[in-house]
Design goal:
Blueprint: E1 4-8, E2 30-35, H1 42-57, E3 63-68, H2 75-82, E4 91-95, H3 97-104, E5 118-123, E6 127-131, H4 133-136, E7 150-155, H5 163-171, E8 175-180, H6 185-193, E9 199-203, H7 204-216, E10 221-225, E11 228-229, E12 235-236, H8 247-253, H9 262-274, E13 279-283, H10 289-303, H11 308-315, E14 321-323, H12 324-334, H13 339-353
Parallel strand pairs: 2-3, 2-4, 7-8
Antiparallel strand pairs: 1-3, 4-13, 5-13, 5-14, 6-9, 6-10, 11-12
Helix pairs in contact: 1-7, 1-10, 5-9, 9-13
Length: 358
């Protein structure tokens, strides 16, 4: 199995917070943080952002190495992680919404069980959809002028996180033809850059890291974000992209698009499962409590750094980071949808793409 590496070097000991737990010491060890996607996407940028910060806060300041294990829209890596056992706390696994959705939809390729794993950190994210310059000129805050355009989209698969944009575009009455099989959203962006795709979306970290440059150069036009949730569960502007319309706003302004009913309820349910709790760091089943507590304390120290908000905004966006019990509750929210939403999406996948999950 080919695995690509990214090494995060430990920072100076002078910058360290107090050790997480004195009983656990990772001195001289290497933490392998496995990401089940390619090295060009948002999950890669997320892990590469947190890895050196985690290295600073874990006792002994181990080197944190981010490994990439793409395949089958992340189920390959997740199935691999399901078989891993605790070994000195040196294996960490990162999931995304594209790992959660096949689990939620009972995808037959799924051989992993979230409840077996030990979450130590969870964070939210957002997403931005954007158009090529030609079609971007037609966008007026609605999709009314885009309904006669045939778009091409590079997709990881209809049962992955991509179902959120695919369903959104269909609700808007747009004709978007997905090309399935890419290994990460970064590969979709590369298709867009080469002109092989004419519409794209990226999670916030990947958008900030690459797609925003395309916008700055006039090679892409932002269309909408998926939004964020307020305390009452309402969809509001994404705090990282407050000047970009949300899908809800675009839908409300577009003829034939409704923000109520079965389609909307299903879209919102999977948006909630896939974005407010979008990326989660896990230790394998059987990890001792002291190791779990050490990682929890380390991630807690990371999120409480004085400069965290500033550096996170530029790399992964303005989103909450959960640890400990908060991470456990966030994981529960991210791996649960209603039976009605699941049934709607299952039927839609069959009708729209011939994807059967039975």
């Amino acid at each position: 199995m080919t695995i690509k590496y990214f090494a995060a070097t430990a920072a100076s000991a002078a910058c360290l917070a107090a050790p997480a737990l004195a009983e656990v010491d990772f001195a001289g060890k290497t933490i392998e943080w496995v990401i089940p996607f390619s090295e060009t996407g948002g999950s890669a940028k997320w892990a590469n952002f947190f890895a050196p910060l985690l290295s600073e806060e874990l006792p002994g300041n181990p080197t944190v190495v981010v490994k990439f294990m793409p395949g089958a829209g992340s189920t390959k890596g997740a199935n691999w992680f399901q078989e891993q056992e605790h070994d000195e706390g040196t294996v960490l696994f990162g999931t995304s919404g594209s790992t959660q959705f096949p689990y939620l939809l009972d995808d037959p390729r799924v051989r992993y069980e979230y409840s077996d794993w030990k979450p130590v950190m969870a964070s939210g994210t957002g997403g931005v959809a954007y158009l090529n310059p030609t079609d971007g000129e037609k966008f007026d805050g609605t999709a009314n002028n885009l309904k006669d355009v045939n778009f091409i989209y590079g997709s990881q698969g209809a049962t992955r996180l991509d179902l959120v944009p695919l369903l959104a575009w269909e609700m808007l009455g747009m004709n978007v033809e997905p090309v399935f099989g890419i290994k990460g959203r970064g590969d979709g962006r590369l298709m867009f850059e080469r002109g092989e795709a004419t519409i794209d979306y990226q999670t916030s970290s990947s958008y900030l890291g690459a797609s925003a440059d395309l916008v700055e150069k006039g090679q892409a036009v932002p269309m909408m974000t998926w939004g964020a949730l307020d305390e009452d569960g309402n969809i509001v502007r994404d705090p990282t992209f407050p000047d970009i319309l949300t899908f809800k706003e675009v839908c409300e302004a577009t003829e034939g698009c409704e923000t109520e009913g079965e389609a909307w309820d299903a879209w919102k349910a999977f948006f909630i499962a896939g974005f407010p709790v979008q990326k989660i760091a896990f230790l394998p089943a059987g990890t001792p409590d002291d190791v779990i507590e050490t990682y929890t304390a380390a991630f807690d120290a990371v999120r409480n750094r004085e400069d965290f908000a500033q550096i996170a905004e530029k790399r992964v966006g303005k989103y909450p980071v959960f640890v400990g019990e908060g991470a456990a509750k966030a994981t529960q929210r991210g791996t649960t949808v209603s039976a009605e939403a699941k049934a709607f999406v299952t039927n839609w996948l069959q009708e729209a793409y011939g994807v059967s999950l039975k």
